[in-house]
Amino acid sequence: MTIRIYNTLSNQKEPFEPLQPGRVYMYVCGITAYDLCHVGHARSAIVFDVIYRYLQYRGFDVVCVRNFTDVDDKIIKRAQEEGTNSQAVAERYIEAFYEDMDQLGVARPDYEPRATQFIPEMIELIEILIEKGFAYQVDGDVYFAVERFSGYGKLSKRKLDDMIAGARVAVEPGKKNPMDFALWKASKPGEPAWASPWGEGRPGWHIECSAMSTKYLGSTFDIHGGGKDLIFPHHENEIAQSEAAFGKIFARYWVHNGFVNIDQEKMSKSLGNFFTIREVYERYQPEVLRLFLLTSHYRSPVDFSPESMSEAERGLERFYQTIEQVIELTGDLSSSGQLPTSKDTEFSSLRDKIDSILSRFQNDMDDDFNTAAALGQLFDLSRALNRFQDSRSRKPTPEEKELLAQGGHRLRECANVLGLLQRSPEEFFQEHRRMSLATLGIGEEEVEGMIAERAQARKEKNWARADEIRDKLAEMSIMVEDKAEGTRWRVKTASN
RNA sequence: GGCGGCAUGGCCAAGUGGCUAAGGCAACGGUCUGCAAAACCGUUAUUCCCCGGUUCGAAUCCGGGUGCCGCCUCCA
Description:
The protein is an alpha/beta fold. Helices cover 49% and strands 14% of the residues.
């Protein structure tokens, strides 16, 4: 089986064949560091993190680059408002980005260049474009002449004439064509500036990605990713710059993630309908956000709401509970050896599920990284593991233990590709309780005290008292679970 | 106005020509339990927005309609 990837360039799924067998070169557009990241940024980061992990899981040597835009209008504006410089602003938000992403478990790409580190490369690229007649200078500005590049519009499927007709921007004086875009901008006083053949200035937005991707990945590479909103103009312009300059295909597979919506509308800064990642962390563990974002296919829009976050939270509880049970029963999850066999029907049925999980998971992921379907397989396995344990009232045999341990291990192995379920269940549940109690404003000691009191009542078979306490806890959204080893409790997730 | 996308059970969400339309959440019934909870079992779409068409066969392909969304300005 080969991996199939939906390519924005062709608008269809294509078999994935990297330029060099066994190696993948990918570039993902990162953030402009001028503010805190919101859930939309988290989605993009997670989607490409999963693609990165999955390609590695499938045995590819992957070189992944994700940039930081650290010079731009918004950063400059912010710096002026704060009375600092744009470097300080960028630095601060890059730092914040790392904090948010680390918690989400987003792996660091191999290279994370910043635009300002590649000014000479950008200037060089612009010079090539001028030399080849694809760019022209007007005062201190340099523009790309879109009419000169015949492929312009091939990614976003637009025609130049249509774009001009529908253009909502005031035409900049000096541009030969309204759709021409800036490669280099003359800087105004007080703005960050670099010396260039066209005078003091700074790069336009799009040129950095062309320069940096070429530097790390070559003039043709395999995968280029980013949010759907980057298709036009950003990625269209990158193609124009790079292909005009080098005369080669730029990126071969264009991958774009869908938006995060709120009430069916795109979450965005300008609409003001966004939640920062940090705000989400106040209420939910980062892993909840991750699971939530992976329950839909990466190209579909996904609606962010408390309800769906709670659903994801319940889903995580379910997974961790299965793992916890398996660990309790087997001591540890083992990965060694072959799967044990037995004539027992329940045993064989679970064995088959475990035996096929990797290929089922891989089939779904091969199909354009269908994490939603892949998660379905994992839930299915989770239930099979629970069912098997439920069906055994007696102590499990060594073979049964081995089977469960391997099942748990494979569940985790697959989940790891999605960046999920890597913590210990204890850690997850503890954190879950801590956060939920904080939201409710209840102290843990208080709950523990009531639980202890109830345990005493139960010991004395004073059921009335025990139930009274349980009802009180229930009013506080605390659900108790009496197990053989003692009573456990969890906070019921709101809005379930 | 131009271009693109989406519409699947109470909710979320896979499935893009043919096995019983995955999976999760919720609800109800059952097993377990002192009673519960959790877990497990069962029930919940003969049907995939509507109307036509292609086909032996369509949720899946084609045409038309309706509704929603996105891009065309910075945006993941």
